[in-house]
Structures are given as C-alpha cells and as structure tokens.
Design goal:
With about 280 residues, the protein is an alpha/beta fold. It contains seven helices and nine strands; from the N terminus they run αβαβββαββαβαβαβα. It binds hypoxanthine.
C-alpha cells in the first residue's frame, strides 16, 4: 500500500514542477474568503482535480484550486477551498493538503475559516485570531500508525497557534485600523449548525468561536513542525445568541463583506511571517 508520505510527496513534486516559485508560506482560504488568492501577482493556478491524490471540495463557496503567486515580493501558496469532515472525508484526507504544503517546503501556514461567534463581545463580520482550539470532532489526522518522516507520535500542542504570529496579526490590524479579537475555536463535525444548548455548553467549556474545519489541518501542520496562524471571520453569531436563524448564504455574504479587511490584514502580516521563517532556515 502506498504510504500517505509517498502520496503527499507525489502531489508535492507535481505542483513544484508547475511553478518556479518556492513559497515558504501557505494560506488556506475559508468560506467566502477566497479573494486573497485572486490578487496574487504572476500567479498560476492548479485545480485540485489535477493534483494527484488531492481531495476535492464539494462545499459551495470553495473554488477548489491551488494558486501559486506573489503577495508583494513574497511567494505564497494559496488554497482556494478545502475539504471538510462533514463531506465524508477522513481527518487524514482533510489534512492531506497540509502534508503536501509541508513536503513542498512550507514552514508557516495561515488557516482561515468562517465561524460562529459564541463570545458576546464579538460581532458579525469581526475578525478573530485563534489563540487555541478545542477538538470536538471526534477524530484526529494522526490516528493510525505514525510516520516519523512527518513528525513524532505524540506531538506537543501547547502553542498550536503561534503566539508571536498572533502578536504580528494584532500589530498589523492596529496599523490598518481593523479590529482583531482573540479567541478559542471549538471545532465540531457539522454539517448541521449547533443547537442553542450546544452553544451554551461550548461557552461553558471556554469556547469563543465555533466552526467545522481547521483543527485537522492545525494538528497536521504542528506534527510537521510548521507554525500556524488561525484567523476566523465571525460570519454569524452562534445559535441562540441573537435569536436569528443561521443560514449558509449569510455565512458566505458576511465573508464577502469583510474580504477587503481580511485581504489587507493578511497582506500586512506576511512580511513579518516571512522574516520569521527566513531567520529559521
Ligand atoms: N457554526 C459552525 N460553523 C460555522 C458557523 C456556525 O455558526 N458559522 C460559520 N461556520
């Protein structure tokens, strides 16, 4: 049987053969947040369907392509769309693109998502830097035999979301006059939104945000020693907090509404992340 490592390696070699750029930063764009990739200069893009072994996204609002281009003079891999557990994929499948980024030499990933706001200090349309997560998805991409070529059997998760990167994000946001809060992301399986009782439970256990993605990707990235910045867009207040009903169209519309701030924030942040990882070598 072909190992996950070899599958990721094959995908990595395929992508690297299609571009002369060698990005060290990967950005995963969540629902309604794909515009960041469109503004990259000198870009080439590869539909996920063409990349060997790559999972295909079926969710609306996810284009399903890898864009390779430059933000200013910083080369970037931008994933427009991701797959989710609720589509029926395993946590390993969901994390596979992160494995591929890692094999292509990426050292830092910015994982973005649409999330429901549990913390009452949040507002619809707000941006939040993820400070930590609570995995309630009942699964983990590292289940099964460990491949030491990716990382250790029991990776530490003390600082899953880099503190220095959160500080860089806060500094960039302040300069741009964009409000950026911090909070803890609870990841659930979905695809149904939560009940008000579930949201009360999540608030009680310390969650500020709720979503259906990101956690398998963060775990795989940390397993490979990549640094992670997580940014959520609060596309709606969580179930029961305002009495309003949640629908996917609203989630996408809110994402679109904040795209401009979101793209500005990521662009402003990239030089600090780039200098952090080029210092590492
Ligand atoms: N719950 C879970 N996932 C989400 C939500 C939500 O309210 N909004 C956007 N993604």
């Amino acid at each position: 049987m072909t190992s996950e490592f070899n599958l990721a390696e094959a995908a990595a070699q395929f992508v690297l053969a299609r571009s002369g750029l060698r990005p060290k930063i990967g950005v995963v764009l969540g629902s309604g947040l794909g515009a960041f990739a469109d503004q990259l200069s000198g870009q080439s893009s590869i539909p996920y369907a063409e990349i060997p072994n790559f999972p295909q996204s079926t969710a609306i609002g996810h284009a399903g392509r890898l864009v390779i281009g430059k933000a200013g003079d910083i080369p970037i891999f931008a994933m427009q769309g991701r797959v989710h557990l609720y589509e029926g994929y395993s946590a390993k499948d969901v994390a596979f693109p992160i494995r591929v980024l890692g094999r292509m030499g990426v050292r830092a990933v910015i994982l973005t998502n649409a999330a429901g706001g549990i913390n009452r200090a949040y507002q619809q349309g707000g941006l939040v830097a993820i400070s930590d997560h609570i995995n309630l998805q009942g699964t983990n991409p590292l289940m099964g035999a460990n491949d030491e070529r990716f990382g250790p059997r029991f990776p530490d998760m003390t600082e899953a979301y880099s503190k220095p990167y959160r500080d860089m994000a806060r500094t960039a946001a302040r300069k741009l006059g964009i409000e950026l809060q911090e909070g803890i992301y609870a990841g659930l399986l979905g695809p149904s939104y939560e009940t008000p009782a579930e949201i009360r439970y999540l608030r009680t256990i310390g969650a500020d945000l709720v979503g259906m993605s990101t956690i398998p990707e963060t775990i795989a990235a940390r397993h490979m020693g990549m640094k992670v910045l997580g940014i959520s867009c609060v596309t709606n207040m969580a179930a029961g907090t305002t009495g309003a009903i949640i629908n996917h169209e609203e989630v996408l519309e809110t994402g679109k509404r904040v795209q401009r701030d979101f793209v500005a924030l990521i662009n402003a942040l990239l030089p600090s992340i780039e200098s952090d990882i080029s210092g590492q070598t």
